[in-house]
Amino acid sequence: QVQLVESGGGLVQPGGSLILSCAASGFTFSTYAMSWYRQAPGKERELVAQITSTGGSTKYADSVKGRFTMSRDNDKNMVYLQMNSLQPEDTAVYYCNAAREILVPRRVYWGQGTQVTVSS
């Protein structure tokens, strides 16, 4: 069965750092682009970062550029999000997403999410 399991969330003070991890299983990880999304109370789900199947290219939302770094390890079926200089507006549930780069048929998977709370 397909699984995406996020970990690493928690409570951090403004200016602090966290590393989120996503462990993938049950599909051919190296053929999927991976993304991190987040959803804060009262807001729509937002694409935070994405990485190609090889890890050769990344993109970031303007709100996190320069602060967050996404990476992947295809040998370990793992995805990471290094988050620095965290601010209260980063508070959200963060979700790991997998999308097959071959689009027909479309295959998309979601993790259950991990809570990140930035507060003093």
Order of helices and strands: EEEEEEEEEEE
Structural class: mainly beta
Extract low-pLDDT stretches.
none
Helix content: under 10%
Q: Give the terminus-to-terminus CA distance.
A: 40 Å
Give me some keywords for this one.
7-stranded mixed sheet
How would you describe this structure to a colleague?
- The protein is mainly beta and 120 residues long.
- It has no helices and eleven strands.
- Strands 2, 4, 5, 6, 9, 10 and 11 form a seven-stranded mixed beta sheet that branches. The chain has a four-stranded antiparallel beta sheet with strand order 1-3-8-7, with no helix packed on it.
Quick summary:
The chain starts with a strand and ends with a strand. Strands 2, 4, 5, 6, 9, 10 and 11 form a 7-stranded mixed beta sheet that branches. A 4-stranded antiparallel beta sheet has the order 1-3-8-7, with no helix packed on it.
Describe the protein's topology.
Elements: E1 3-7, E2 10-12, E3 18-25, E4 32-39, E5 46-51, E6 58-60, E7 68-73, E8 78-83, E9 92-100, E10 108-110, E11 114-118
Parallel strand pairs: 2-11
Antiparallel strand pairs: 1-3, 3-8, 4-5, 4-9, 5-6, 7-8, 9-10, 9-11
